[in-house]
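A further point concerns the way the authors explain their paired sequence and structure data. Since the whole study asks how a given chain folds, the encoding of that fold should be made plain. A single example would do more here than another paragraph of explanation. An entry of this sort, consisting of the sequence and the corresponding backbone structure tokens, reads as follows:

_____
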Amino acid sequence: MNTSLTPSPDQWDSFVSGQPRAHVLQQSAWGTLKSRYGWDCERVAITGESGQIVSGAQLLFRRLPLGLGTMAYLPMGPLGILDAALWHAIHATARRHRAAFLKWEPGLARDDDALLDPRVFGFRPSQQTIQPPRTILIDLSGSDDAILARMNQGTRRKIRQSQKNDILYQEAAPADLPLFTGMMQTTGTRNAFGVHEPDYYTAAYELFVPQGHAALILATHEGDPLAGIMVFALGSSAWYLYGASSDTKRNLMAAYGVQWAAIQWAKAKGCRWYDMWGIPDADEAALEAQFESRSDGLWGVYGFKRGWGGQVVRSLGAWDHVYNPLLYTAYQLALRVRR
């Protein structure tokens, strides 16, 4: 008989790492990170007859404005068998946290769940996403030359240029974190998008890098920091979540060199896929027609990301399961007013 339990972080991470759809946003360290910045975290798991975890989910909870309860959030899961016992445990946990609704972002569909329909589980489509629903996946199979051959000519040329300027690419030590966080602030200001406070990136580094699940790779030239990437890896996938560059020596193309270094790090970790994590949510024809004329939102990064030879893919998007229709309607109205 299957039973529900609250797994320890070690139990949970052991289960997650063995799943075909293992994702960094389902690791316990991600829950710890978000719990320091306004979220609560709880994990639920279903065990089989032998006591091993067969399915589960890491849930995040955030208080809604005006005392409207909480929003429950399930990113890039659940993992394992999506049966009635698991959904019962998920919904019971969400209700215990006074959730007005549960937002579910299942992530990218695999071949064996491409027909997954969240409506079957009582969810409705949502226009409010937390993670970008569309991304570019780079295939890391084959040699470095094979990966380079799949890129466009301009990106290959800039990578080669970045290797000729005596730029130093290396994994950062904790003492190097201020270089990266400073460039993050510069990048946010230059590209007009929000970035986290410096302590957030420090916490992410401390939670993931020593455990081997992430690397902070910096590019420097004659002591000047030029670019940096924080890349995460688990199972067969790597994710480029945070990237930054300075306003100096941009002609040296360090942003291309550091991205190539991150791709090689992911390949050395045994990853098959490198997720560029976030492009505008438009079909490929619209992306190609508009990227040269738009710089708002994620359009500013699409021009860079498109050249790396990846495939444009869309996740299953965001879905809501409503527990309190009145509070959910109030929340939707508040979102429209904010926009």
Summary: The two ends are 48 Å apart (CA to CA). The first strand starts at residue 3 and ends at 5.
